[in-house]
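thread: overnight batch results

M.L. [08:02]
morning all. the overnight job finished for the chain we discussed friday. pasting input first so we're all looking at the same thing
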Amino acid sequence: MKKLMLFFLLTAIVIAKPYEPNNIDKQIINHTFNEEFDRAIKLSQDQIKINTASPKYHYYYINTKILEYYQKVAEIDPEKREAGRKVLNKEIIDYCENVLNKFDNSKLNTENKFYLGSIYAYLGRVNGLDGSWWSAFRNGQKSRNIMEEVLKADPKFYDAYLVLGMLYYYADRLSGITGFIAGVLGMTGDRIKGLEYLQLAYDKGMLTYGQTALTLIEIYSSLEDNDLEAIKYYEDFLKRYPRNKRTLNAYCHRLIGLYEFDKLSSIINSELIEDYTKARYYDAIGNTELAIRFAEESLKNEKSLWRGASGNAKYIIVFNSWLTGNSSLQKKYESELDERYKEIFETAKNFEKGSKWIHQFSIQAALGKSIAELESLAANKPDTRQSPELECRFNLMMGFFYFKNGILSKSETFYRKCLNSKNERYKYTAYKYLVDIYLNQNEDKSKVKKLLDDIEDFDNDRLTFRAKDLEKKYNL
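M.L. [08:03]
and the structure it wrote out:
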């Protein structure tokens, strides 16, 4: 009898092991997140035919189609993009609804409930992309209910926290009519809980690593505008899926913004790196010839560039042509600059000495000069007080270099110099880093309260949400 009891105990332990992807699942996952979509779709479809009683491979198929969606949207002519989105949205919505009609949640085991709940979440997401907010929140609510069932049945089914984390986080960021609909359906938001749940899924989940990593990348690099936090998720994701071109290029742009050119130099020649990414890199390190070459190459397929990239590529050509005296190339693209870049270039021409000095100073930082060397260079800065634009650009750079080197008091001093700037972009950057500075050191509460009040008056959603971390730290 004792041997029999031991047998049942060992069997129970085996059955209770975490849910993990099998070899076929791993192949699908690897193909999906390495953007080999055709292979992932074929494998998923083959398994759908075999596993007719489970929504599992429908889940993998839909996950692949949604990631492929972003690639297809980028390939659509911008003038036809909205109509193209509608067609792609309908394709995914119809598929999800058809799958959901095939399965009864009450008859599924815990693992299959998870897959079904995830499909409801995917449907809600595409409903949102389609502007169908009532359907988005209704399907999101169904997904949440199922995930809560999953966790009630197995509290260690950590992958279920991905959907719950997304719902809590994104619901907290809603306003207007979307916020009203979410409230009617009981979709209450909680940014802190959402981030905690997402981190739990990231750390302990076995099935959803790729989705969770991309979600955290999107949240920190876009919605929270916190590249310092996003970088670790980029790097971990790309270690597993190095062929993901979209994420790799986004990572490179984040590195450029953070002056992490030592990391960039080892990957910039990869076949997966886009021409526009290379143009920004070579512009930053002062290689004018290659900056112009790759910027022009990127414009040959201008319609595929993301919003803002085209204007920046043209400015890279104009500014570097001006630096090298190539007036014909400068004139060719100068007329095509948008208003923002026209103003920036006018400043460069009107304050030539200061503009060229700041450009060279930025290049020295990109080439890896130490903070002591940068301070030495800064001591010889020409007087740029007649150009508030150039003066603020210099102050923002110094603020960042001090911040990067952990010299927070000096960083704060330089960022504060930009708070009176008429340039809203510069003010935003200054506020953003002041939040980080106060999070990384202890300040007087009254000083922090003043910053929070100023941010509230500035009225920027991303800043407002980042500032919540200050409220939590200082109990305000």
